[in-house]
Structure prediction request, 1038 residues.
Amino acid sequence: MKASERHIAEGILFTDQYQLTMAQLYFRMGMHEQPAQFDHFFRSYPDYGGHKAGYCINAGLAWLVDWMREVRFGPEEIELLRSQRGQAGQPLFADDFLQWLGREGTFEGLSLRAIPEGRVVHPDVPLTVVQGPLAMAQILESPLLNHLNYQSLIATKAARIRQAGRGQLLLEFGMRRGPAQGANAGARAALIGGADFSSNAGMSHVLGFSPKGTHAHSMVQAFMALGQGELGAFRAYAEVYPDDCLLLVDTMDTLDSGIPNAIKVFEELKRKGHEPLGIRLDSGDLAHLSVQAARMLSQAGFPKAQIVLSNQLDEFTLWQILSQIGQEAPQYGLEPDDVIERLVYGVGTRLITSEGCPALDGVYKLVGVQARGEWIPAIKVSETPAKVPNPGDKRAWRIYDRRGKATADLLGTAEEDPRRMKPLRLQHPSEQETYRILDPKEISHIEALFCDILRDGRQVYDFPSIEQIRELRRKDLDRLDTGVRRLLNPHLYHVSLTGRLWDLKQDLIRSAQEGAASE
Amino acid sequence: MKASERHIAEGILFTDQYQLTMAQLYFRMGMHEQPAQFDHFFRSYPDYGGHKAGYCINAGLAWLVDWMREVRFGPEEIELLRSQRGQAGQPLFADDFLQWLGREGTFEGLSLRAIPEGRVVHPDVPLTVVQGPLAMAQILESPLLNHLNYQSLIATKAARIRQAGRGQLLLEFGMRRGPAQGANAGARAALIGGADFSSNAGMSHVLGFSPKGTHAHSMVQAFMALGQGELGAFRAYAEVYPDDCLLLVDTMDTLDSGIPNAIKVFEELKRKGHEPLGIRLDSGDLAHLSVQAARMLSQAGFPKAQIVLSNQLDEFTLWQILSQIGQEAPQYGLEPDDVIERLVYGVGTRLITSEGCPALDGVYKLVGVQARGEWIPAIKVSETPAKVPNPGDKRAWRIYDRRGKATADLLGTAEEDPRRMKPLRLQHPSEQETYRILDPKEISHIEALFCDILRDGRQVYDFPSIEQIRELRRKDLDRLDTGVRRLLNPHLYHVSLTGRLWDLKQDLIRSAQEGAASE
Prediction:
């Protein structure tokens, strides 16, 4: 795409066509400036080929707000809309609507409440709540979901990979297989969710991180083609980067050529007073090769040299690799932990595409409209009770048990405060007979989850740094029960309703069904 | 991301860190301006959960070239690199290298040959060939793969979905679940590979398409909350869009409320002289509901009203839906084809994420370096013979049989012309004893696959429009054997080598192995 086209494709027209036709309909019906509320939430945890996650990590909010504050309907956008024709050849958008859009077509009238980035989040709990004029809140649907679904998906995958890797250094390597420019959002989300660093040079610099990397096979191949062999390539690398020497050892043969050549070069570096960093393994049986590499490097006097693993890694392959190291290392007289503590993971494709589950099912649902100064809750009936969104203006709370572990998220109406409800009744969101009663002494803390982000378009929130966001993620994961955090078959975390919200939901379902029947 | 950060994150630093450190190494060793050749190709067809595709559709080239021509190392990029420190706290990049990068750090010295977008392509055949100074050709690796892998992946998925949908109108609806800004590349690729239109407003306008859409549940909900019900919402829509009236009928109850209300409104429209467009089904048993909707709409006098289907569609769900319509339609006295011909598919998540296979394994491999004016082919040895890239400067040809169907792609050295080889021997790329001999009378046509795109940075190719690219796709798919085109268990298309290229490859493997052994 040319730069001259990008400002259109990435501006306020980065939305779905039907948002614009609905906005015109609201305008024509005089409803366009009627205050409305939309909730953004996801319905189910990512399901990685049959294995559902037990939690998600929230991400993407800061970039959404940056985008909302930068875009608007300018003359170019208005002209493009004016040019569009309907089936009968007539202009699809009328002049009066386009004039209104040119004048009022910004997100400056919207208020936004949200759960901060980095926090552990669960299905059906609103992550983002938008209030404001119906037409502009409607136009925001597609870009909001686009900004938030993908980053939360990738942050979640990164958290799982970090967990499987037992906290060893994790590098995001996904650009080459990432989704076009979306690779930048993917790198950011990976850094939020669990990656320590990224190989993405531009994005790392923008976010204040030092980009990381090793070298490619092509470097070794170039030296080989010019008659200098793998050893020549390694020597050149060591000469240019004596204090950052990390060598890729599988261009020819890992055990017979790569590691022995790397050790030769490391010995030369050591004699010159430099500490080599380590090696990278990018093919073959990574667990077996890790054990062999650890043994060979230690025997040669490099017991601290890192072993960077890459090649189709994710939480499941890491799990398998670490299990196999646990079995194989003792056969070679090594402590498994001594091998594992040297590992660094370079994770590309399967992180940036969320292998096994390439999309988060986030939705944006109308939950209320204001008429004559009063909020009227809205409902969408579904044949599956669990798919009926929770109506009206709500607040989200997190309940911590006596151990300080999160035990449930609770949704209530805006007027309710669960800190004053004793005992606290946690109602299942779609099954009337299922509820829990919590005695005050079982609760250590009840936390409000929402922060005000925008108030009538004005930013009232200081966006935290990536490092601060990661601190939230670490704190939340520590307060999650290990059963919920489990990578396979996690315990189901409870998301509950207050009794009053349950009653409101049931009343609305009933009257919607009666309304439909009598039409 | 703020606009002020975007030009860094999407500029020339949209690459992996190790490309920059390797470039400095080449600079230090005096190899940075040595001409090199890299081939871009993919190794295997996308594998959708155990079912491999039989072909891919090439896409992404025009945007890659736009990007290459726009980016360069400017003062800001140089300063960011200058600020980076190594492990020992020393600057990672030296002044002389940064000065060279500031002066020569563009892609203007590169030449590029490629198979055009829209063409059917196969594994191991170079899709893009880059020749030019080693350092800049190396830096291009990550952005090239990023631009081409994702668009080819999505174009391929779109072609498969179109095939499963028996050519009925296909709309791309993926923005909300798409990978951040990558959703724009996804929309373009979908339009190349098989989608007729997209709901993505900005991207459609940029590419000269009319964006398409219907309306959302939220519109019906808003009218319901304000006491006007589903019928009120439909009437409003028909009033504003009398000639483009397409109604979403599943907000309440599809058969008992949605379709009867839509029919009421369609009758009102008809009385005013307008032709309603149709309905959209977004939940439930889409095959069953399609048959019922077709029946109800036809009985009411709307035999041409479209039935738009959406909700987690891809090639496999469409296949199932069309099979089920084949079984159910006759039970209600309908011809299955009469139902199917009314269908339009809105495909979102599973298209834009390539459900089942979220990445294409495209790689970029050094195949030659020039020294003293002569090209020296480069090789990368692998324990898996099929993973050894084909060395040197090559040409790619497509052989058509007497029926005019493509029967094999053939790679040969730059000097060879298979049109002069009679009979033609097609050598398997990794198994010596496997080959085919084609008699001249079995061949109707031999086609050169590469086009020159850039010559020393100068564009020597007129990029075709999306419509022209689609024409290439349609033509190529028509010339593909139906066995290869099959969605499940396709026949394997042959990619072969000439005898001379086979010999070169074996010689290089042998001498690389001997070189490694003697080091």
